[in-house]
Write a structure and sequence with these properties.
Layout: E1 19-23, H1 28-39, E2 43-48, H2 51-64, E3 70-74, H3 80-92, E4 99-102, H4 120-140, E5 147-151, H5 174-199, E6 204-208, H6 223-232, H7 240-243, H8 245-252, E7 261-264, E8 274-277, H9 286-300
Parallel strand pairs: 1-2, 1-4, 2-3, 4-5, 5-6, 6-7
Antiparallel strand pairs: 7-8
Length: 310
């Protein structure tokens, strides 16, 4: 990748005629992504769990950009029935997204189960996005410069996928299960890239992480995690519009390459202009990718129709 140190929102190409679906678009990185894409003429569907918050986000953006083309649609990523309903409505309305930004996330809540009985962070951060991507993949393949951008975290490097205890029935750690879900994001994004490339698909799969950004993701967290990320470290965090730069680069930059993991280029990948950074070895391990893929298809009952990459 060249010249990424200077890359900023002013370098986003014209997005007129392109449709983006951004999960968790009502606040934080999702709101910053939506605002930047809308400013360059892109149409954005704000896929949000709370429609009232989504409408407030739309009002905020349109106050600054009266011509912005935005729509709020309900999506609860922790509920696979909601994911299916969202995808089916897009299809029945004849909408064909060009870019899917898998942005929404949950951080370190008390142990909670999803509607289908999965641990909440694994359900919302990984399984919901896995299912949504699979359900929209054929529509994306018909799009203009189609991309799937999955937002992971530098924390994926600390994660382990406990295939024998995914739901934390035996041992639950709020931060440990967050790291597990972010590793699952990384494994999925890389495995999707491998399978799309093997199939000759026009869709590109990229990964991104924001570094340390001041968002409200810690709102549902508990104990030391909430104190640390919600108060003590906030002065060190970059603003959401800076934290969103890696996913914006992945979603819009012509020079972005499938399979890349884009993060901040500054010290410790905490802040700075976007650049390609490394994935943990376990994130690109072929056996882990195959195992998580097959498990995710079984748990979501969503099949991508993509052959396993050799």
């Amino acid at each position: 990748m060249t010249k990424t140190q200077a890359w900023g929102v002013e370098r986003i190409p014209d997005q007129a005629g392109r449709l983006f679906v951004v999960t968790g678009a009502n606040s934080g990185l999702g709101l910053a992504t939506t605002r930047a894409v809308a400013r360059r003429g892109g149409r954005v569907i704000l896929a949000v769990r709370d429609e009232a918050k989504g409408r407030r986000a739309v009002a905020e953006i349109t106050a600054e950009q009266p011509g912005a083309t935005l729509e709020v649609r309900r999506l609860d990523l922790a509920d696979l029935d909601s994911v299916r309903a969202f995808a089916e409505r897009l299809r029945s309305d004849g909408l064909r997204p060009d870019v899917l930004v898998n942005n929404a996330g949950v951080l370190a809540p008390p142990r909670t189960l999803s509607a289908q009985g999965h641990e909440l962070q694994f359900a919302a951060n990984h399984l919901g996005h896995f299912a949504l991507t699979g359900l929209l993949l054929d529509l994306l393949a018909e799009g203009a410069d189609p991309r799937v951008v999955t937002v992971s975290s530098a924390n994926h490097r600390q994660g382990r996928i406990s295939f024998e205890d995914l739901a934390g029935e035996r041992t639950y750690s709020p931060m440990g299960h967050y790291n597990q879900s972010k590793l699952a994001n990384a494994v999925f994004g890389w495995e999707l890239h491998r399978r799309l490339a093997a199939a000759g698909s026009p869709v590109r799969s990229l990964l991104a992480h924001p570094g340390y950004a001041a968002t409200n993701i810690q709102a549902g967290s508990v104990g030391p995690v909430k104190l640390l990320f919600g108060r003590l470290l906030i002065p060190l965090a970059q603003a959401p519009d800076r934290g969103a730069l890696p996913q914006l680069f992945a979603a819009t930059a012509p020079e972005a390459v499938g399979g890349q993991f884009i993060g901040p280029g500054g010290m410790g990948e905490l802040r700075g202009a976007p650049k390609a950074v490394r994935l943990a070895p376990r994130a690109v391990d072929a056996e882990t990718g195959r195992r998580l893929w097959e498990l995710s298809e079984r748990l979501t009952e969503v099949r991508f129709g993509l052959p396993a990459a050799l």
